[in-house]
Amino acid sequence: MKMSMLFPLVLLILGSYKLAAATVRPEFIVHNEQWLVDYLNTVSATYSTITYLYSIGKSVNGNDLWVLAIGESPMEHILLRPEVKYVGNIHGNEVVSRELLIQLIHYLVDGYGQNKTITRLLNTTRIHFLVSMNPDGFAVATQPDCMGIRGRANARHYDLNRNFPDYFVTNLVELQPESRAVINWLKSLQFILSGTLHGGVMVVNYPYDNLPGGRISRAYSRSPDDDVFIHLAKTYSYAHSTMHYGHPCPRDDDFFPDGIVNGAAWYLVSGSMQDYNYIFAGCMDLTLEVSCCKYPADDQIESHWNDNKDSLFRLLTQVHLGVKGIVLTPDKEPIYNASVDVVGRSHVQWTTSLGEFWRILLPGTYTLEVTAYGYKSVSYSLDLTKTIEYMEDSDVKRTDISVWPDNAQNIALLEITLRESTGEAVASKDKGPTSSVAGQSLNVCLIICCFFMVINQDATLGKITSEPLLYLISSRSVD
Rounded distance, CA 182 to CA 273, Å? Predict the structure, then answer.
């Protein structure tokens, strides 16, 4: 055979081998750091159309903090498409978290285009995996070690889950490179939902982790979105095989009704990543305690995956619960840093550079207030009660509702088409009256795409319901 014919054949064989290596399920063992890095690179190269590998920084010892993004458009943000994340191994000796995320990555990339539920999720969501936030701690942890602390902290002996700015008290602990990398990551992308995986007990912990004024006695610390956090926590715990029973670890004296607990009611934490995500970055973050043993023997890894698989997937789908939208000028220019407040919930969200916002909300009626510098505030009611099958393949679904404020001086109605497949909201034409106003005036036009979904507990994994409702808030002029 001529060399010119042999070379393409060799490339074909090598390419086929690489594909096969990536599509074979990873072993149910604890993998070392070099294996993890090689695996993430292999997955990224093999599934290049739906994955993107990037580093958010380095650890104390110079290890890259690798993140794998998975989605239909992995390298860039799509308008109104939510960003979610999972973070593992913040404590280096809590290794089940790493292995669960490795298995979840395989589950998603292997099922894309084959499993309709997985495909639907990845076509409407971008998911980011920071499999190991603390590779230096992991490097010195030992197996097996169910309750020890060796490897828990980073290379400088700092607990990374006590290392973030705290809203309730001043955190004087020196900010570490790993924590700084995560903070910069949160500034670069508007994450909506997140889970941080831990080990040593089985329960879902939700904000707040701390109390005002530096109090030292534990007590329930209620966030403005307490009802939503409870729903998210129960979504995880009830999809888990045993967590929802509330006492899954034989040696643990604590009892957690429904398998969930408010952070400060359990024990106080200053500088937690969970509270930082919610308060400073506008991302609803849960602490997922996923195993009774922090660093178990290899033969226990598969059972942990089977216990947590459904929970990890179902939690991701909850990012499509509630309301999302765009704040625009009448010229269809996005308004950056407009505040979006749900009345009765003292937790303001701010729009992105594209004018986007998201709020995870439970079924019900709400009053939304939007304020932007130089514009008159807009206030109106939302009704999030109608449902359709979110995960089913379907054509564009459209509901146009015009809302005419009583005191509007300048009204412009747009016809909007929501393209669910790409997450885009497109203005197709102007229609409706306008009236001139004496003097210089500014107008703000708010588009809100409302989604409601609930888990059908009797249905197959990931089958959820949702209805896209499209609202247009007409512009209001101000002097």
Answer: 9
State the catalytic residue, choosing from 83, 94, 178, 289: 289
CA distance 53 to 46: 12
Joined together, the tokens standing for residue 234 give 């129960």
Which one is predicted more confidently, 381 or 440? 381
15 close to 48: Cβ distance less than 8 angstroms:
no
Q: Cβ contacts of residue 184 below 8 Å, gap of 6+? A: 56, 57
Residue whose entry in the numeric block shows the structure tokens 């860039």: 76
Catalytic (active site) residue 76: no
Does the predicted model carry a pTM greater than 0.90?
no
Instruction: Order across the sheet with 339-342: list the strands.
Output: 349-350, 339-342, 364-371, 378-384
What tens digit of pLDDT does each residue of 342-383 get?
A: 999 989 899 999 999 999 999 999 998 998 888 888 887 888
Q: What angle do CA 266, 268, 269 make, to 5 degrees?
A: 120
Please name the residue that has the structure tokens 């003097």: 439
Rounded distance between C-alpha atoms, residue 4 and residue 44, angstroms: 29
DSSP one-letter string for 304-351: HHHHHHHHHHHHHHGGGSEEEEEEE-TTS-B-TT-EEEETT----EE-
